[in-house]
């Protein structure tokens, strides 16, 4: 039974769902990094929110860990590259709190426009300063949205309902999508120049960190107002404070800060800065939504192999998982076969899909092919870490698909390139989804792969089969299956032999010295 640790305070429904699906659950919120490192090795999965940090040091003790589930969208508290290198899937729930966060953004914008926090404090103090709090209308104002994904799109919809003009910047925003949302797609500098209000909804990356800085403020319209309900480091706080003091920025509403929890801040005490304690996702509905989603995602992966909303590997839907299962087995076998055939350092991998398989989600198939290929010579490689391992070693990976079927209704071909040339293997599925190798080094051959095998590349001359049989018989090794393939009479031939036991080094040496043999490989699956 898989075991999951809930390491943050989370709605009870998370544990309930996991248990109902047959997952063993421990709930231990508030562990220190050292405590987490000490226990994480006991779990197949861990569910977190924003409080728990999972860094490379914690992951060194996570030998059994397969998945980290973040109940929420931001994964900046998780060392994703370290998790990927360790072969751990990192999932988030990008849709569970989108509406809640977008609504908080609109609330912050309205509070800024009408100075509601100041007016509230003043009135509670027994003052009646009606003339002091002169606000601005939102209708007709231009809202600049940086990041037009899930949350940004909801903010856009709500702002349009308030009769605001909306412009957007997002490097991944297409012209068609911008037209569909009814906004002007602009460059970032243009957004800064035109906006009366600016809101930011991007993840924290090296490219987005400090995206709103001193240079950006210099381009903004005087009297602009800013909202940040995304990540604190997206705005350079010292530059924002200076822009407010210079009168460039009329006000800011911040739900997030560079350092959290923000017990101290340069903004505290500034009347035109609204501060809230990272409340973007803090509604009862959102907390239930993300708890439900992450529980279902973790359970579906651990129990059925379905991968949803992973940030470091291709997704596999629950519907696709059973369809892909026989192909996953085939892809794994082809990778292991090629990895045991090729002796030279690999500098290129090509995976080609033809026929029926080309209509499926092949990304996971490529990942497992790479993992099994590289795993022959490298320890600990899996389908999550394989792309990172390949990139680190300068191995170029390409993938191609064609609906056109050749000799088989469905086929996967793996070509492995080295400095001395290339080696290819092809496989298909027979009745009942049984994997079969149908070509090795361009030589047609049909065989099922078994735990112990021999691959012999030989000259197509008489005597090979007799010589092989004699040597194996003398060693007491039984032949379970013997498959032959050749390109043409007298040319290169391939023999794939299934045997019941491993052969000794002495027996291997004898086989290698057969006059017809050009190469002998011991294979295991």
- The CATH homologous superfamily of the largest domain: NAD(P)-binding Rossmann-like Domain
Poorly predicted tracts of residues:
none
Query: What percent of residues adopt helix (DSSP H or I)?
Result: 25-40%
* Largest β sheet strand count, sense and barrel closure: 7 strands, parallel
**SSE-based structural type:** alpha/beta
Q: Overall pLDDT, averaged? A: 91
Strand order of the largest sheet: 8-7-6-9-10-11-12
Distance between the termini: 26 Å
CATH fold category name of the largest domain: Rossmann fold
How does CATH name the architecture of the largest domain? Answer: 3-Layer(aba) Sandwich
Assigned CATH class of the largest domain: Alpha Beta
Proportion in β-strands: 15-25%
**What's the number of domains?**
4
Number of strands: 22
Overall 3D geometry?
elongated
Radius of gyration: 30 Å
List the helices and strands and how they pair.
Elements: E1 3-6, H1 13-20, E2 24-27, H2 33-39, E3 45-48, H3 56-59, E4 67-70, H4 80-85, E5 89-91, H5 98-114, H6 116-124, E6 142-146, H7 150-161, E7 165-169, H8 175-181, E8 184-185, H9 188-194, E9 197-200, H10 214-219, E10 224-228, H11 237-245, E11 249-254, E12 273-275, H12 284-304, H13 320-341, E13 346-355, H14 363-375, H15 386-392, E14 396-402, E15 410-418, E16 421-430, E17 434-440, E18 443-447, E19 452-459, H16 464-474, E20 479-486, E21 492-499, H17 505-512, E22 517-524
Parallel strand pairs: 1-2, 1-3, 3-4, 4-5, 6-7, 6-9, 7-8, 9-10, 10-11, 11-12, 13-14
Antiparallel strand pairs: 13-15, 15-16, 16-17, 17-18, 19-21, 19-22, 20-21
